[in-house]
């Protein structure tokens, strides 16, 4: 009798267990998967975003001319790298954790780094490899060899070609693009910058050409070509359509960052470009942000920037503010005159990567199944957020746009990073969330020091170290049911800070020749000489007379523009004269432009043949905006 009872209970329990596991593994009948919430990315946009960090290379005649924007008249003979080595570039990128590289095949000066059949203004005319080299090929091959992706930047603006501005140029531009897209294998992206039209050499015409930035280049034709020959490539421009500019050249996205734009609204030259950091919350087109920034102040190599390579700390901060804010990071390397990435830059980038790897090393949430206040069904269980599988996600029921996940860490655990991902193939949804930690016997809100609004492909938050035994994420609001595919947490030990091992060469600078600015009161003038980039001297005039109080020999002017996020009074073009006592111009000693100063207001240097004079006159002949004032963080004169 006893035996029978036992058998009954045993059988009964086995049935129950089988029943439970059947229920647990089979999707509940009638519960449909989460519907995509428009706009959603194309598969290639998801693949692109998973690349996270990739390199940019600016290299060309500007490298040898110490310029940011070549005028289009430089002699190709100056392109003479002594030790060019694309494999050294790519090895640096691989060691820096990067997944691809974009090369400036042609920058605004029109010089082509491949032997194009459409112009002679290319490496064919340079001494490098006696004109028989092909830099695009060498880099594409190196990428294949080391297993990273390849892409090109083809500047639409061309300051060399005489026919720039006419329909003939548009044909030329598309022919060159076709050449690049059909001869060098797969590209992951095609990069079109927003600087378009303006003054240039233009075959010797030396004039100013304005074009209709929206329509002139016939971009629909570009998309048709790519669909045919490079369907996996995505197009970068201010407004996409593949990915968008983030609205600054400093390498960060907004804490709130939607991967959407309102279709047709953003085009090159879009006046409200600052909003590109955040995207359009109500947008109807998927155009995620790409953060482009140079490891040095300039995009091209300048020897005087060898001591201004971004620090590991700065680069690490940028990673969190780009990849950690639902964007990608496109980090530029200005290849030097030997044709290699300078050792300071390569060491810095590799050390930066080691720093990130050490900060995000041990995921303390790995394998912990959190408790959820709502789950759509067992198929979309919260176990999916810690299972290391990109394509499984936790989802809430239709109509449920807020829910909480609680991780039980079992014992007090140190934490200062939280990483979350939404399953973006179904759209970007989360609008607001908060984080709480169970610490010292109570729940406390974790202060991450920035908006906790959007998540998107990836959001990484940094916060002061806490010791928590439980972690709770409150999803407060979303555009639709939640779809979260990954959550990780880390402790980045402060003592793990890795220092680069390179020796930094510090360029010794002679102090400025003392001067007074006529008509500018002393308190204001001092802001331009106090070596403090945060103070800006504002001058209500476009002409400034400098008085050295005695005759001085001068051969260089340095100008650091206003460094505010929204700078005032950026000078775009200038003329510098020796002047008479009453400030009238005498001899023109220098004239030119401060290239790319609008998007990248870095320190500018003007070198000229030494002149001996007591008075100099600087005329701002063109301003970036309609400012009535000039804003100067610092300026100086040197022998
Ligand atoms: C800008 C250009 O004007 C700069 O020279 C640089 O190439 C940067 C990445 O894009 O539009």
Question: How would you describe this protein?
Answer:
The chain is of the alpha/beta class and 639 residues long. The chain has three domains: 43-355, Glycosidases (TIM Barrel, Alpha-Beta Barrel); 371-491, Jelly Rolls (Sandwich); 516-638, Jelly Rolls, CATH 2.60.120.260. Helix content is 19%, strand content 30%. The chain contains ten helices and 26 strands. It has helices spanning 2-25, 43-49, 61-65, 86-95, 135-146, 167-183, 219-229, 312-322, 343-359, 522-526; strands spanning 53-58, 100-106, 149-154, 189-191, 198-200, 207-209, 234-237, 243-245, 260-261, 285-286, 288-294, 327-334, 371-372, 394-395, 403-422, 430-439, 442-445, 459-478, 483-490, 516-517, 537-539, 543-561, 571-579, 585-593, 604-623, 630-638. The strands form five sheets. It has an eight-stranded parallel β-barrel with strand order 1-2-3-4-7-8-11-12, surrounded by four helices. Strands 13, 14, 15, 16, 17, 18 and 19 form a seven-stranded antiparallel beta sheet that branches. Strands 20, 21, 22, 23, 24, 25 and 26 form a seven-stranded antiparallel beta sheet that branches. Helix 4 (86-95) runs parallel beside helix 5 (135-146), helix 4 (86-95) runs parallel beside helix 9 and helix 6 (167-183) packs parallel to helix 7 (219-229). The chain is globular and about 85 Å long. The model is unreliable at 14-26 (pLDDT under 50). Residues 68-69, 193-195, 292, 299, 596 line the site of beta-L-fucopyranose.
């Amino acid at each position: 009798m006893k035996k029978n009872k036992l058998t009954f209970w045993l059988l009964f329990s086995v049935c129950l267990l089988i029943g439970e596991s059947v229920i647990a593994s089979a999707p509940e009948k009638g519960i449909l998967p989460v519907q995509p919430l428009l706009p959603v990315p194309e598969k290639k946009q998801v693949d692109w975003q998973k690349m996270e960090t990739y390199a940019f290379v600016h290299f060309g005649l500007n490298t040898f001319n110490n310029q940011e924007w070549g005028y289009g008249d430089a002699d190709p003979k100056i392109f003479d790298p002594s030790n060019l080595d694309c494999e050294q570039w790519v090895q640096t990128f691989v060691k820096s954790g990067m997944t691809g590289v974009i090369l400036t095949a042609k920058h605004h000066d029109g010089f082509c780094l491949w032997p194009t059949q459409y112009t002679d203004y290319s490496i064919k005319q340079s001494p490098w490899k006696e004109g028989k080299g092909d830099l695009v090929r060498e880099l594409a091959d190196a990428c294949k060899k080391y297993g990273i992706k390849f892409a090109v930047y083809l500047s639409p603006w061309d300051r060399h070609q005489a026919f720039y501005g006419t329909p003939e140029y548009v044909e030329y531009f598309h022919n060159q693009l076709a050449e690049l897209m059909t001869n060098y294998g797969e590209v992951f992206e095609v990069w079109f910058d927003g600087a378009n039209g303006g003054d240039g050499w233009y075959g010797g015409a030396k004039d100013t050409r304005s074009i209709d930035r929206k329509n002139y280049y016939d971009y629909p034709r570009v998309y048709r070509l790519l669909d045919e020959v490079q369907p996996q490539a995505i197009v970068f421009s201010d407004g996409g359509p593949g990915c968008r500019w983030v609205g600054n050249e400093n390498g960060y996205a907004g804490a709130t960052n939607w991967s959407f734009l309102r279709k047709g609204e953003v085009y090159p030259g879009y006046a409200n470009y600052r909003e590109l950091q955040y995207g359009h919350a109500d947008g109807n087109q998927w155009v995620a942000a790409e953060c482009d920034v140079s490891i040095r102040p300039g995009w091209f190599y300048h020897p005087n920037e060898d001591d201004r390579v971004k620090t590991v700390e700065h680069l690490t901060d940028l990673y969190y503010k780009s990849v950690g804010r639902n964007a990608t990071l496109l980090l530029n390397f200005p290849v030097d005159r030997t044709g290699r990435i300078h050792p300071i830059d390569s060491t810095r980038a590799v050390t930066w990567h080691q720093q990130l790897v050490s900060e995000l090393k041990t995921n303390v949430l790995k394998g912990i199944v959190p408790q959820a206040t709502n789950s759509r069904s067992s198929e979309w269980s919260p176990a999916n957020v810690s299972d290391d599988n990109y394509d499984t996600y936790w989802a809430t029921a239709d109509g449920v746009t807020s829910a909480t996940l609680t991780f039980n860490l079992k014992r007090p655990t140190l934490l200062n990073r939280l990483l979350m991902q939404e399953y973006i193939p179904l759209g970007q949804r989360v609008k607001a969330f908060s984080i709480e930690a169970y610490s010292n016997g109570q729940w406390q809100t974790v202060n991450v020091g920035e908006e906790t609004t959007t998540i998107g492909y990836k959001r990484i938050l940094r916060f002061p170290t806490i010791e928590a035994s439980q972690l709770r994420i409150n999803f407060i609001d979303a555009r639709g049911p939640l779809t979260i595919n990954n959550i990780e947490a880390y402790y980045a030990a402060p003592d793990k800070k890795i220092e680069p091992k390179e020796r930094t060469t510090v360029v010794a600078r002679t102090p400025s020749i003392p001067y007074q600015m006529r008509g500018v009161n002393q308190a204001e003038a001092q802001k331009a000489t106090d070596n403090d980039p945060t103070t800006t001297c504002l001058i209500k005039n476009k002409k400034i007379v400098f008085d050295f109080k005695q005759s001085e020999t001068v051969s260089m002017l340095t100008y650091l523009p206003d460094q505010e996020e929204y700078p005032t009074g950026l000078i775009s073009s200038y003329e510098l004269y020796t002047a008479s006592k009453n400030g009238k111009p005498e001899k023109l000693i220098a004239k030119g432009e401060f290239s790319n100063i609008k998007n990248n207001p870095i320190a500018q240097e003007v070198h000229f043949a030494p002149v001996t004079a007591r008075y100099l006159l600087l005329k701002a002949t063109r301003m970036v905006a309609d400012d009535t004032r000039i804003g100067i963080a610092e300026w100086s004169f040197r022998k």
